[in-house]
Amino acid sequence: MLQKGTKAPYFEGTIETGERVSLNDYAGKKLVLYFYPKDSTPGCTAEACSLRDNYERFLAQGYEVLGVSRDSGASHQRFIEKYQLPFHLVADTDLTILKAYEAWGEKKMYGKVTLGTIRTTYVIDENGIIVDAIGKVNTKAHADQIL
Q1: Catalytic site residue 49?
Q2: 125, burial (CB in 10 Å: exposed 0-12, middle 13-18, buried 19+)
Q3: What secondary structure letter does DSSP report for 63?
Q4: Is residue 6 part of a domain?
């Protein structure tokens, strides 16, 4: 996991609309960058809905929210539409962003070690510095963990 106080790695990716997005697009803004395993699964849906339900609180405090998973743009589009998510999701199908943010690696599921997305959230300040790193995400109350 990346440490607080370090510079956020530069990233570029494609959001659900097919448009490109990069860390530079958030220069001068605070960014909640969250990594999650899979669209429309119970934990990931709870996490996304926690962020959705508190989105106005994030905006009021000057935060933008951006989610990243290895799902396709089409999958992200369905996820956004089904749950009315007000923020964008990056399709990191080649794992470039996940690896740069140390959100891809070994994890245990049901006693078995597998490679996959490690649920992680980084709060990045206006200058591109990581000011918070959350590795033990409470999916149902994730917005409260951040705010």
Answers
A1: no
A2: middle
A3: E
A4: no
What tens digit of pLDDT does each residue of 52-94 get?
999 999 999 999 999 999 999 999 999 999 999 999 999 999 9
**CATH number, residue 140:** 3.40.30.10
CA atoms within 13 A on the CB side of 72: 3
DSSP letter (8 states) at residue 72: -
Split into its structural domains, the chain has a count of 1
100: containing domain: 12-146
pLDDT tens-place string over residues 88-146? 999 999 999 999 999 999 988 788 899 999 999 999 999 999 999 999 999 999 999 99
Annotated catalytic residue within 23, 32, 33, 44: 44
Check pLDDT > 90 for residue 14.
yes
For residue 98, being part of any structural domain is answered with yes
